[in-house]
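Structure (tokenized):
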């Protein structure tokens, strides 16, 4: 994997112009539009300088996309762990169904075949989003609302994995579908779940 180079002074200003240009290109045409040639033309930064800080255009795109999301993930606080899980599931569904979420999926898919991009994707995007929902799980454990014996990563996969699968299968998840998935997950995660209502 290529190690990141230190950036200071004039290099930092050039780097930011590259990231701004790449973000604009991603917004306009997705990953296909964010070529090194296009970033070079839009930013005015030479291709040699671009390659000084990034090994390829995919890493430029991931860094640019991550910069736009650095405000962080706002966690819900709905008054109960069950309501928080349901709301966060809805938010995940809305995000990945949005143009921004679809672009993240495009970057993720492209990074699977590139070791540098995959590492950058984890450190700049996936880990930070994962850490945010881990806080939600830790809060629920502290409150005694969920099973403390569960591995947090397994619990989060159970909670949000079905949303991702539904998105891959159908391309969208409605609010009602997200709520139903959250309800099903809750029955396996809660410390003392209520039995489901009888049918019919």
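Design, position by position:
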């Amino acid at each position: 994997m290529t190690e990141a180079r230190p950036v200071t002074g004039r290099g930092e200003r050039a780097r930011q112009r590259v990231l701004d240009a790449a973000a604009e290109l991603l917004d306009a045409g997705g990953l296909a539009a964010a070529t090194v040639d296009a970033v070079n033309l839009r930013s005015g930064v030479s291709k040699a300088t671009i390659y000084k800080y990034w090994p390829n255009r995919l890493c430029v795109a991931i860094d640019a996309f991550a910069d736009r999301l650095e405000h962080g993930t706002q966690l819900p606080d709905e008054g109960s762990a069950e309501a928080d899980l349901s709301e966060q599931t809805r938010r995940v569904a809305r995000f990945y169904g949005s143009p921004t979420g679809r672009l993240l999926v495009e970057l993720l898919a492209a990074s699977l075949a590139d070791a540098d991009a995959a590492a950058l994707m984890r450190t700049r995007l996936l880990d930070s989003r994962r850490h945010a929902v881990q806080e939600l799980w830790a809060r629920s454990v502290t409150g005694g609302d969920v099973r403390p014996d569960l591995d947090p990563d397994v619990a989060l996969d159970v909670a949000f994995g079905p949303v991702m699968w539904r998105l891959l299968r159908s391309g969208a998840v409605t609010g009602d579908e997200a709520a139903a998935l959250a309800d099903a997950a809750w029955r396996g995660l809660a410390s003392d779940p209520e039995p489901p209502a009888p049918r019919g």
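Reviewer-requested clarification: The first helix runs from residue 9 to 29. The chain has a mean pLDDT of 89.
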